[in-house]
Design goal:
Strand content: 15-25%
Number of strands: 9
CATH topology: DHBP synthase
CATH class: Alpha Beta
Structural class: alpha+beta
C-alpha cells in the first residue's frame, strides 16, 4: 500500500505497521493512534506483536507537562549514586539514546496492566495531548499516577530532521494524518527465532491481515530528510 493509504488507515483508527530500517533497530512495530485505541487493539499487540506497548508523544507536549527523558533522569541520579552514571554511559547499539520517559497509569485503572486498563490510560493520555493548550496539564496532574504500565516515549523536537526512531516516524505520521499526535506502538517479535520478526515475515502478516506496512525510507523521502 502507498504512504497515503497508510496515513488514511491510521486516521481511520486502524492498525498500521512501521519498519525503521536496517540502519536502526531493524524492527517492525504494530502501530495505532492513541485516541482510537481500544482493549482489542492492546490484545492484538500482546498476541500478534509481543513487544513492549508504549505511547509516543510530541516533544512539545512533554515540555508543557514537565516530562524528561528517563536517560537524563537516571544520569542526574549519578550525583547521589555513581552507579546511575555508569548505567547511562554510551549509546544503544542502533546509535542513539532511547526516547523513554516515565511510565503511567490513569487513576481510574485497577492494576493498570489489563487490556482495558492500558487502553483507558492511553485514550486519557491522548486527551491530555489534544487539550495541551487548555486543560491538558491539569488533566495529566489530576488524572494519572506514576510509575505505571504505559511507558511514555518523547519524540525529538524536530522529528525526522533529528532522529529516525519509531517514536519520531510514528508521531510524524500522526501529524500527516492530522490527528492527535499520540501514537501507540509495539515491536513485533518472533517466537520461533526468539528475535525480532523479520521484515519478510512482517510483510506476510501485513498482507494476510490487510494491514499497510510503511518503510522509514518512504517517510524520510516525504520529509525530504537527507
Amino acid at each position: 500500500m502507498s504512504l497515503n493509504e497508510t496515513i488514511a488507515t491510521l486516521k481511520a483508527g486502524k492498525i498500521v505497521m512501521v519498519y525503521d530500517g536496517k540502519g536502526r533497530e531493524n524492527e517492525v512495530d504494530m502501530v495505532i493512534a492513541a485516541e482510537f485505541t481500544r482493549p482489542e487493539h492492546i490484545s492484538s499487540m500482546r498476541n500478534d506483536a509481543g513487544g513492549l506497548v508504549c505511547l509516543a508523544i510530541t516533544h512539545e507536549v512533554a515540555t508543557k507537562l514537565g516530562l524528561a527523558y528517563m536517560h537524563d533522569m537516571i544520569a542526574s541520579f549519578g550525583k547521589v549514586n555513581p552507579i546511575f552514571s555508569k548505567l547511562t554511559e554510551g549509546r544503544a547499539a542502533y546509535g542513539d539514546k532511547p526516547s523513554f520517559s516515565i511510565s503511567i497509569n490513569h487513576r481510574d485503572t485497577f492494576t493498570g496492566i489489563t487490556d482495558t486498563d492500558r487502553a483507558l490510560t492511553i485514550t486519557k493520555m491522548a486527551s491530555v495531548c489534544k487539550n495541551i493548550e487548555t486543560t491538558g496539564v491539569e488533566e495529566f496532574s489530576k488524572g494519572f499516577r506514576a510509575p505505571g504500565h504505559v511507558p511514555l516515549l518523547i519524540a525529538s523536537k524536530h522529528l525526522l530532521q533529528e532522529r529516525m526512531g519509531h517514536t519520531e516516524l510514528c508521531v510524524y505520521m500522526a501529524k500527516l494524518a492530522n490527528i492527535t499526535p499520540a501514537i501507540v506502538m509495539c515491536e513485533m517479535m518472533d517466537s520461533g527465532t526468539h528475535k525480532s520478526l523479520s521484515l519478510e515475515a512482517a510483510s506476510k502478516y501485513a498482507g494476510k491481515h490487510g494491514i499497510p506496512l510503511v518503510d522509514a525510507g518512504e517517510l524520510k523521502a516525504h520529509a525530504k530528510v537527507a
